[in-house]
């Protein structure tokens, strides 16, 4: 996958390179209920396949799930239960964010570990491929970015505390067991990615952004290349771990979703990315400061207390900021080129600059 063409999306107020960026509503079960007035299937052919595979011929209509933007995402209700269905768009290759079966493989492999991941309820490889998973209760709110959603500061803090513990437990899953589970589900565990691999991946995305939209990026990239940490024992890496991808019911995590870019690699990749979302000052004009959220250092301590073992270093924090700036810059470029019209992208330049400046400061390079 070329990340400059199809990089990770970021829910809530952060930017995404495949659809909408800032100021979107948080995803909740109420989003699904609000569509109850529809009576027809959004995709009748897919709906028939799903009902047959689930053995639920009398299930309700297949409706588009608002907030699901990786491939095609739907919801189907069967009495008191529900299923989220993710499908490859017809005519599109099952690659990158559209490789939905790859997402189902890791979810199936994680069953039985006590982690808040949705259970896979059905899958089919026949083109266009799809899989179904249980519809979990709760909402996914990114405190510093979902500025249109009210979330009490104590609740936001406790959710982030619990999320750090979820991440520690996720990284503690033995890779040999995970590999067996992925194979049993029909997939293959990828080769581990090193910190240098991650740097090259997101550097490519950054270089796809016009230079005038990323001031100071060359210096940040140079600083990152000059002191790449050695790889540590690899773990399962979610790739986009944060509260915006963790449904919670009250304070309780119920489902870690959006597994589009999961892989095997350095645990500090996930921890560094999660830490970016503690600081609203990194998102001027598009985010907000939320008092009382754990600091990046505190997240690291909570993470290690739950099974994570690696310290949270400045290099990985800077890498995460570079990654976010690259994604936002790429989104803005796509908007200005007319490939994805979204005027809200014009709010992003101050945030891109702030992220790059923060990354440089972390590595001792100062701000531009």
From TrEMBL:
<dbReference type="InterPro" id="IPR041726">
    <property type="entry name" value="ACAD10_11_N"/>
</dbReference>
<dbReference type="InterPro" id="IPR011009">
    <property type="entry name" value="Kinase-like_dom_sf"/>
</dbReference>
<protein>
    <submittedName>
        <fullName>Phosphotransferase family protein</fullName>
    </submittedName>
</protein>
<dbReference type="InterPro" id="IPR051678">
    <property type="entry name" value="AGP_Transferase"/>
</dbReference>
<dbReference type="Pfam" id="PF01636">
    <property type="entry name" value="APH"/>
</dbReference>
<feature type="domain" description="Aminoglycoside phosphotransferase">
    <location>
        <begin position="62"/>
        <end position="277"/>
    </location>
</feature>
<dbReference type="InterPro" id="IPR002575">
    <property type="entry name" value="Aminoglycoside_PTrfase"/>
</dbReference>
<feature type="region of interest" description="Disordered">
    <location>
        <begin position="1"/>
        <end position="24"/>
    </location>
</feature>
């Amino acid at each position: 996958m070329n990340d400059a063409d199809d990089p990770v999306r970021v829910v809530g107020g952060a930017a995404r390179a495949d659809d909408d960026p800032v100021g979107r509503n948080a995803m909740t079960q109420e989003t699904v209920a609000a569509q109850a007035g529809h009576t027809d299937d959004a995709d009748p052919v897919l709906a028939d396949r799903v009902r047959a595979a689930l053995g639920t011929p009398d299930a309700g209509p297949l409706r588009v799930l608002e907030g699901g933007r990786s491939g095609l995402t739907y919801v189907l209700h069967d009495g008191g239960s529900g299923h989220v269905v993710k499908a490859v768009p017809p005519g599109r290759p099952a690659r990158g964010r559209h490789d939905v079966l790859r997402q189902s493989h890791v979810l199936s492999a994680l069953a039985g570990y006590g982690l808040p991941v949705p259970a896979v309820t059905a899958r089919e490889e026949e083109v266009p491929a799809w899989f179904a998973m249980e519809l979990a209760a709760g909402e996914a709110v990114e405190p510093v970015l979902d500025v249109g959603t009210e979330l009490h500061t104590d609740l936001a803090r406790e959710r982030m505390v619990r999320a750090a513990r979820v991440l520690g437990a996720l990284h503690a899953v033995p890779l040999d067991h995970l590999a067996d589970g992925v194979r049993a589900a029909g997939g293959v565990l990828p080769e581990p990615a090193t910190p240098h691999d991650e740097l090259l991946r997101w550097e490519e995305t950054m270089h796809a952004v016009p230079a005038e939209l990323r001031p100071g990026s060359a210096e940040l990239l140079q600083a990152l290349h000059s002191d790449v940490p050695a790889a540590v024992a690899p773990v399962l890496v979610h790739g986009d771990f944060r509260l915006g991808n963790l449904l919670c019911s009250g304070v309780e995590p119920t489902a870690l979703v959006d597994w589009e870019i999961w892989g095997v690699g350095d645990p500090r990749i996930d921890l560094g990315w999660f830490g970016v979302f503690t600081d609203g000052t990194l998102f001027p004009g598009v985010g907000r400061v939320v008092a009382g959220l754990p600091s990046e250092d505190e997240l690291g301590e909570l993470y290690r207390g739950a099974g994570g073992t690696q310290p949270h270093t400045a290099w990985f924090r800077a890498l995460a900021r570079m990654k976010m700036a690259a994604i936002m810059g790429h989104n803005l470029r796509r908007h200005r080129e007319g490939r994805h019209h979204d005027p809200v992208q014009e709010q992003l330049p101050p945030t891109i600059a702030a992220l790059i400046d923060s990354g440089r400061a972390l590595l001792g390079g100062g701000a531009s």
